[in-house]
## 1
Amino acid sequence: MKNFSIAIDGPAGAGKSTVAKEIAKRLKFIYIDTGAMYRAFGLYYLKNNISLDNEEDVNKYVSQVTIEMENQAGENKLFLNQEDVTKEIRTEEASRGASKVSVYPMVREKMVELQQEMASKNNVVMDGRDIGTVVLPHATLKIYLTASVEVRAERRYKEQTEKGMDVNLDDIKKDIEERDYRDMHRETSPLKQASDAILVDTSSMNKDEVISEILKLCQDRGIEL
């Protein structure tokens, strides 16, 4: 039986993760958190005292990393070499490790291989910046989720101030603009809308409207709700 896959790409702050998680929950699919996978990769090197600053050292151990995701009682669990590291990857140390390993081409190649393997075995929803173009070029449904820079900045500002963080709206907007430029102009797997992806601009939509729109698109592709 063929598995279904939904690829959601888009710029920073477009709400990809929030939407992808909810879509996966509604469809009872596995949500593949690609950011968490990079955190797990970084964690592997930290646990084994391997320098993250030396690309040659990092490349030596890439083949020894296995990452799997399971949905257990409605909660996504991540396993690094069969060890549950779901909580461990949320540390600041794992986050810094992810930032370092994600720049290495061999790590990115391995990550694509792992993500494609997961999609071959499960019904998945995956979000990122190169899912529809590189990771899942034959996805059942591809969505390019975006919103204006102003709207994305306001959403992030609201989210962070509600957490009690002291932030500046102009600084957030500038950060998003710089992130967009880096993502769209990087040499490896730049952010772009796949030719067969459906554009969903959420600038004037709330979360429920976005989810409703994507679920309709799922039905159009033969995915039962």
## 2
Amino acid sequence: MTKKALELTEGEAQVIEGEFINVKQSTVRVIEGGHIELQQVGALTIDGERIDATQSAACIMRGKELSLNQSINIMSVSDNASLNFSFSPILIAKNNINIDKSAAGVMISKEIKSKDTSSLLMIAQKVEGNITTLLDWKSALAFGAVLGGVLGLARLFMGRK
């Protein structure tokens, strides 16, 4: 489906392409477009200039501007990301991440602004706000060294029979 403006409500689609896309209460395999608005949508991959998702789920989201509200996705890659009451195990933003009352596994960005957020690991040049991280860079380095040692030792013992 290729159009400049496309709207899908309560349906299913394999591929949606368009300049402006508005999808509500649907499942879609692939969405590609300029400005994409999603409400209660399940998608495999979403690729667009600007993505606004509300109560939606996706595996991979790529875009310049990404806004998630009460949504979940496995991996996000963008220039700027904004999360509100959302969850993303892998969140990568080139410039900044604004995250509010959300959770993230790994966050990587130049600047992170946070309010009541938790994450496993965070890598940024500048961090503002309160955020609870499980691992800082020192503990992540120590964890990696211990894990590498344990796996090396296990491999050594598995080689002997």
